[in-house]
Amino acid sequence: MRDHLREIGMIARSLDSISNIEFKELELTKGQYLYLVRICEEPGIIQEKLAELIKVDRTTAARAVQKLETNGLITKQDDPHNKKIKRLVPTERGKALYPVIIREHEHSTNVALAGLSDQEAEQLLRLLKRVRHNIEGDWDAVKKGKKRDY
User: Fold this and answer.
1) Residue 3 burial (CB < 10 Å; 0-12/13-18/19+)?
2) Do 36 and 101 contact (CB within 8 A), yes or no?
3) Distance of alpha carbon 78 from its chain centroid, rounded?
4) 25 confidence band (pLDDT: 50, 70, 90)
5) Quick one: pLDDT at residue 29?
6) Measured between alpha carbons, how far is residue 102 from residues 17, 33, 47, 67 in Å?
7) Are 16 and 8 in contact (CB under 8 A)?
8) Which of 18, 40, 72, 111 has the most CB within a 10 Å radius?
């Protein structure tokens, strides 16, 4: 059995656990920092696009967005052209947390890539992007209710 995805999963869960513990004092729990980062990087993003970027279902994204809004980290603003669309925008408080989250991300990246040359780190990134790209088709299909044939 090949263990590539187990390794990726262990890495992701470890980093997520670390972040959840460290960001608890910021009132960011259960991966909410991921949503806040994307909203800070793309102010005005819509919830559906946010869910797509993070690779979660709409319900999961809706819960996280609601919690961020309740905690005063983001607001929902009406789209000027379509009143059904709500745009997600960070508040000043949310913007203030962004540099803290990015510092943690950069630290974790440095720890994770320790001992790799710049060339190896770039190669790893290219390969991981290919793996993600390979999986995205299945993710889209399953999200729409299709069964994979395995």
Assistant:
1) exposed
2) yes
3) 23
4) confident
5) 79
6) 16, 10, 22, 20
7) no
8) 40
